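Entry type: protein chain
Record version: 2
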Amino acid sequence: MGSIVASRELRTLAQVPQLALSVAEDDAEIRAKYRPFLLDPEVEATDWISQLELDTVMSISSADIEKTGSRLKVLVLYGSLRKRSYSKLMAFEASRILHRLGCDVRIFNPSALPIRDSVPDTHPSVQELRSLSAWSDGHVWVTPEQHGNLTAVFKNQIDWIPLSTGSVRPTQGRTLSIVQINGGSQSFNALNSLRILGRWMRMWTIPNQSSLPMAYKNFEDEGGDGSGKARLLPSGNRERLVDCMEEFVKFTVMQRPYKESFGDRFSERKERRERREREEKRRLKEIAEKEKELAVGGSV
């Protein structure tokens, strides 16, 4: 870890640097479209997330921003279209924590995304999702469990992200944090499937994970208006979410410098070399055939 190892001496809230992306620093259009989780300033000032002791990871994040000149870029996906979507509420809380930790967080709204292969991949929502994935340093995936597994809404988003689009790999080498929402008792089926998906998409899934049981009991304003403003109530489950976001930032800081190198594999280098050799042989053959035609024409 070297220079990013933080001091273990805790500081007061006033001494911890404020890393959240401010209105003045942010792009207004991006803030309006991709950051629906943001709180009103007067609410944020006294919010439970603002009161969290996150000194160590904030020091790591601050040092990384200073060293690289850029924030960690995080794409958050959730897996429900319900007005009162607990996976969306959980995604908002995760995003608020990451926002406080200095990340550039963007949430993708899946409501306009068509079913995989029902339209060409030139569809605007598909291109938006792929662009966000390619832009990111890491993902946070939040899905409900339905019939013991992922929801179609969530899986459809992953299905639209290919392993490769030409020379661009939309997910390879990126970090991943996974979260599951349960309507009933706690389960880990969806989390296990998310780990399989993460591995298949060649991502680095962090060891920790969050599974929220009985989601309807764990948020304010049960059965509320779907505005996304209902907050996660205090519990060990809420603390686990904080742990996961802390760990995600630490792993992403460590992995980010090497993200592009994970796409540099022997098999693909060999394939590129062989393709260049075939193209060169074809080019030389075309030249030889043209020279032969000219020679024949000149002798007539």
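Comment: Residues 75 and 139 are 5 Å apart (CA to CA).
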